[in-house]
């Protein structure tokens, strides 16, 4: 939208099943309420994310600027921050190269939070130390991407991009623990510790085939590696179409991914390491993920153009973690 912002408020609700619960047996001598609450809970958690982004594209410009803010909450973890992105299409025609840069600053807080704790305030009725670390910690993420799209024919289109991501700051999770063992017997809990920087390089490739008006088949591929020794490979087939009119559209997708875990993930460690984690997201697993997205162009109201998006998705991982979620989002501009 030229000379005016397009706003994208979004609300996401998701439920995550944690998989196999972790015991805190009597042999662990330094277990406390913080640790046992975090490690033995087997109930699923419901998470909420709120975000807002404004896309600003000046008239006769090939660049779009997107400032934004977000807030993510789950029962023992909160993240909130600011986003900014800039994307430019450097040429037109059948071959279109593009460049984008984004930065995110976010502040993290761990612990069993209430309203005051979410914003870093002192909790009521908690004069007794419950063991939770509720310090505010910051991190910054930079994301640089270059790529192109190429129209091969009226039916075929391809695209590729190379993406570099750099993170600095607190990259561990507040209050997360690693279990230390004597042989097969758990004896102590030790804090999770991860490096304060991370570099990732990712390659993306996309193919689209559209044999009919308002209908297409797609295939996306991605692969990335980082300096934590994580490797991830994914493939995503998809179908897109309309409900008979171009103003109402649907998108079905399925994604399979394989991840090789970080060298910092410890399996029954007998001692504490400089860097250590028991985070399953940093381990080795396979993921099956799929969902549907429905998009509707709404009637213009008082000079505003509206777009409504409703989506649902589900996920299962071979380490036993599963989840499902729903999203309701909107865009409006003038």
Provide a descriptive summary of the structure in words.
There is one protein chain. The chain is 4% helix and 61% strand. The protein contains 2 helices and 16 strands. The relative contact order is 0.14. Residues 18-22 and 33-43 have low confidence and may be disordered.
User: Structural class of the helices, strands and pairings?
Assistant: mainly beta
Amount of beta strand:
over 45%
Number of helices: 2
Q: What string gives the helices and strands in order?
A: EHEEEEHEEEEEEEEEEE
Please bin the fraction of helical residues.
under 10%
Oligomer: single chain
Low-pLDDT regions: 18-22, 33-43
Explain briefly what this protein structure is.
The protein has helices at residues 33-40, 115-118; strands at residues 5-17, 45-56, 63-74, 77-89, 95-110, 137-151, 156-169, 177-182, 185-191, 197-212, 215-226, 231-242, 248-260, 285-301, 304-317, 322-333. It is mainly beta.
